[in-house]
Specification:
Organism: Citreimonas salinaria
Bound molecules: arginine, zinc ion
Number of strands: 31
Protein name: Aminopeptidase N
Helix content: 40-55%
Family: Belongs to the peptidase M1 family.
GO molecular function: alanyl aminopeptidase activity; metallopeptidase activity; zinc ion binding
Radius of gyration: 27 Å
Strand content: 15-25%
Pfam family, one: Peptidase_M1_N
């Protein structure tokens, strides 16, 4: 049942062409396939096997003659001629009963597909593996008005439409959508003068929420032309919004399918953060056209080849369009919150895993976000120019290929002459390296000595040294840059770097821009951190100094009952008053580490985290900040004021996020008066929701929650916010009960992944609420995961990761979490997805 990277073998045939006809009906869709196979002389001899799951074979022929294949639960085997042949089959499937949202399924009256990673085999019999690439022609027969598939439209009439995709692609990029849809059309002219028709297709009523996504698409198309010289390659580009979707979105060739939450937005219904996320997901899926589709993956172990690179590209896009410093801080905060716990717990796996049972369980923060960090390191090591050259070579050499990480690294070796064999460990070694630092000062020479250690992870007891790019700048005692940023390249377990000719002992700014995904272990005196907080020229490290001070102060409060650190609060106050600083940056400076992050850091220090103590200390710290900053709140609020019509751009959203942070502090002082006023006056969702959040936290939101419900009950995406926020911002003591009550609300449509996650995902994110000492949070989540698993294994398995940190808590909580994990594991007929996840978490 386990698949290994080392077992890779090519398929024995090439697929020259695929024709599919879909006769759509909710319970009995017929699919006719005609596929040209030709033996691949380079492949090892093998049986002819086609994947197929949950499909009924009606009939099959080879070169027109009826055949009777041997059918298994995974597919079919059949005797075939020696040379090339034409396979034809007719199968039947039931999209309306497909609750797993994988393959062809129905959502709100429309038909749609999700084939990555291995969903095409639920549509028809096929060699469903990414290294089998073919051109597809599709005919759709249906009474629904809009009939879409990949590629270019080639004909349509009453009740039918035909499409042809001239670009060979693996089956996971296949897509089909039909429904009563409305479109938001536009056009884009590529730089070589080709006109492309763009459409965003939505359900009636959502037409007004497409404009932002369309702008983002055009910006993405321009960016990929300008930065990488990559043009779009079909006559049309379609995007469809679907309400029931397991993930964010999918890059199917020419027909991207989006979770509606990842594309639909209007100022009244979406927050600034939603707008930014939509912009980056549209870019991400569009960028896949080159990094993913034109160049795809040989097998699923190479997933980071397309995902790490495409995340890196969408991050660059956002930093180019908005503020690079703010984007970097947000990304690192996410990495620490999501990837570090994964890399330091039972689910740790390399960026390129070497085995799996269910590939859907490996669409992880490690593959995506750490995968992007690895590309960032490569770029830092070779430099911007060489990186651009290597990417040109990659597109040139591998266009049309199903490639591997080895291919990717070879491109960099060939373009730069560098040996990347040691660097490759970033792809094979799991775990977060710990980097410790010693310093020495001697007569004008300042020396930094680094030691790296990567702790053991499941299946990898011993680790070898990694190549770590360490960006270092040195500050002189007056705060100027004595030595501007230098990229140190660490390759050994312990290594020293000397800076000569200095007139005074400097203060080091280490790991600028978070130049490598490591934990920097350095006991920095608080005065030195405060000095960096005041003077560091690197905005990331400036933020991180403050974050570290806050973390250390909170840990002292949690462990030793210390008082909030007035020195840090004062230093932060000086930064907040600095009007030359971007409001978005100041808002980030005001954010405290999350409670989960504090639990993670305590665990790293060998301390058992106490969720209630973490929560109480965080509250006490925020109260102390509110008191200390009270005199400047009016000024800050005035600077956060936006006096222009709403736009979700970096400038306005930065101001609103500062305003939101100020309102949160103010609510601790005024009991909610300002928040109530903002809620009443709000004409956009960002202001409305930030006010509502403050009121919920203050326990003063009853009337506003009802008003919000009545105002938005007709809007599914806003109602997800209504469900989620009540749990995310709930008093932890009440969070499990409130979540339980919401699961009984008539609008709790638990089969919809967005709604399920709104309540149960929010519970898992409310740290002290989930870890309620009665175990009520654990039980509620497990109850619902057990209920969802038979219907939707993918979403169930993904949400099991809420339990991944179980071993770090006290014995009482450990026992309760283990009990729930074992209860899930013991369930009869548990899906392969969930059983793999629970098994790994318990192991
Ligand atoms: N390739 C998609 C993206 O990152 C994600 C699809 C994930 N699907 C899945 N079943 N795991 O853009
Ligand atoms: Zn992707």
């Amino acid at each position: 049942q386990t698949v290994y990277l080392s077992d890779y073998k090519p398929f024995g045939w090439r697929v020259e062409d695929v024709s599919l006809t879909f006769r759509l009906a909710p319970e009995a869709t017929r699919i006719l396939s005609r596929i040209r196979f030709a033996p691949d002389p380079a492949a090892p001899a093998q049986d002819f096997f086609l994947h197929g799951e949950d499909v009924s074979l009606i009939r099959a022929t080879i070169d027109g003659a009826e055949v009777t294949p041997e059918i298994t639960p995974q597919g079919l085997r059949c005797a075939v001629p020696e040379g090339a042949f034409t396979w034809e089959a007719e199968v039947e499937i039931a999209p309306a009963s497909n609750t797993a949202l994988e393959g062809l399924y129905m959502s709100g009256g429309m038909y749609c597909t999700q084939c990555e990673a291995e969903g095409f085999r639920k549509i028809t019999y096929y060699p469903d593996r990414p290294d089998v690439m073919a051109t597809f022609s599709v005919r759709i027969e249906s009474d629904l008005p809009v009939l879409l598939s990949n590629g270019n439209p080639t004909g349509s009439g009453d009740g039918w439409a035909e499409w042809h995709d001239p670009w060979p692609k693996p089956a996971y990029l296949f897509a089909l959508v039909t429904g009563d849809l409305r479109n938001h059309p536009d056009t884009f002219t590529t730089r070589s003068g080709k006109e492309v028709a763009l459409n965003i297709w939505v359900r009636p009523g959502d037409e007004g929420k497409c404009a932002w996504g369309m702008e983002a698409l055009k910006k993405s198309m321009t960016w990929d032309e300008e930065v990488h010289g990559r043009e779009y390659d079909l006559d049309v580009f379609n995007i469809v919004a679907v309400d029931d979707f397991n993930m964010g979105a999918m890059e199917n060739k020419g027909l991207n399918i989006f979770n509606s939450a990842a594309v639909l937005a209007s100022p009244e219904t979406a927050t600034d953060a939603n707008f930014e996320r939509i912009e980056s997901i549209i870019a991400h899926e569009y960028f896949h056209n080159w990094t993913g589709n034109r160049i795809t993956c040989r097998d699923w172990f190479q997933l980071c080849l397309k995902e790490g690179l495409t995340v890196f590209r969408d991050q660059q896009f956002t930093s180019d369009l908005r503020s690079a410093a703010v984007k970097r801080i947000e990304d690192v905060a996410q990495l620490r919150a999501r990837q570090f716990p994964e890399d330091q717990g039972p689910l740790a796996h390399p960026v390129r895993p070497e085995s799996f049972q269910e590939i859907n369980n490996f669409y992880t923060a490690t593959v995506y976000e750490k995968g992007a960090e690895v590309i960032g390191m490569l770029k830092r090591l070779v430099g911007d120019e060489a990186y651009a050259k290597a990417l040109d070579l990659y597109f040139d050499r591998h266009d049309g290929d199903a490639a591997t990480i080895e291919d990717w690294l070879r491109v960099f070796e060939d373009a730069t002459g560098r040996d990347l064999s040691q660097f490759k460990r970033w792809y094979s070694q799991a775990g977060t390296p710990r980097l410790s630092v010693e310093e020495a000062w001697d007569d004008g020479t300042y020396t930094l000595t680094f030691t790296q250690v990567t702790p053991p992870t499941p299946g990898q007891p011993d680790k070898a040294p990694q190549v770590i790019p360490i960006a270092v700048g040195l500050l002189s005692p007056n705060g100027d840059e004595a030595v501007p940023t230098r990229m140190l390249e660490m390759t050994e377990g312990k290594q020293s770097f000397a800076f000569e000719g200095l007139s005074a002992r400097p203060v080091p700014s280490i790991l600028r821009g978070f130049s490598a995904p490591v934990v920097l272990e350095r006991d920095v005196p608080a005065e030195e951190r405060a000095f960096l907080l005041a003077h560091d020229a690197d905005p990331f490290n400036r933020w991180d100094s403050s974050r570290s001070l806050a973390r250390e102060a909170l840990i002292a409060m949690i462990r030793d009952g210390a008082e909030p650190d007035a020195t840090w609060i004062d230093a932060l106050g000086r930064v907040l008053r600095d009007e030359t600083l971007d409001p978005a940056f100041r808002a980030l400076m005001l954010g405290l580490p999350t409670q989960a992050e504090l639990a993670q850091v305590l665990h790293e220090k060998g301390v058992t985290p106490d969720p209630d103590a973490i929560c109480n200390s965080t509250e006490a710290m925020a109260d102390a900040m509110a008191k200390r900053f009270e005199p400047m709140l009016d000024d800050l609020a005035a600077q956060a004021q936006v006096d222009a019509p709403y736009a979700p751009d970096a400038e306005q959203s930065g101001k609103r996020s500062l305003g939101g942070a100020v309102l949160a502090l103010r609510t601790r002082l005024d009991g909610g008066a300002a928040a109530r006023a903002q809620f009443a006056a709000a004409d956009n969702m960002t202001l409305q929701l930030s006010a509502l959040t403050c009121l919920i936290r203050a326990g003063e939101a009853r009337a506003e929650l009802d008003a919000f419900h009545d105002q938005w009950q007709g809007d599914r995406l806003v109602m997800d916010k209504w469900f989620g926020l009540q749990i995310a911002a709930a008093d932890p003591a009440e969070a499990p009960d409130r979540a339980k009550a919401l699961t009984q609300h008539p609008a709790f449509d638990w089969k919809n992944p967005n709604r399920f996650r709104a309540v149960l995902g929010a519970l898992a994110m409310n740290h002290a609420g989930f870890h309620h000492k009665t175990g009520a949070g654990y039980r509620l989540l497990a109850d619902w995961l057990l209920r969802l698993d038979p219907l939707n294994p993918q979403t169930t398995a993904r949400m099991c990761s809420a339990f991944q940190t179980w071993r770090r808590y006290d014995t009482g909580r450990q026992a309760m979490m283990k009990e729930q994990l074992e209860r899930i594991a013991a369930k009869d007929g548990l899906s392969r997805d969930t059983s793999e996840m629970v098994g790994r978490i318990l192991s």
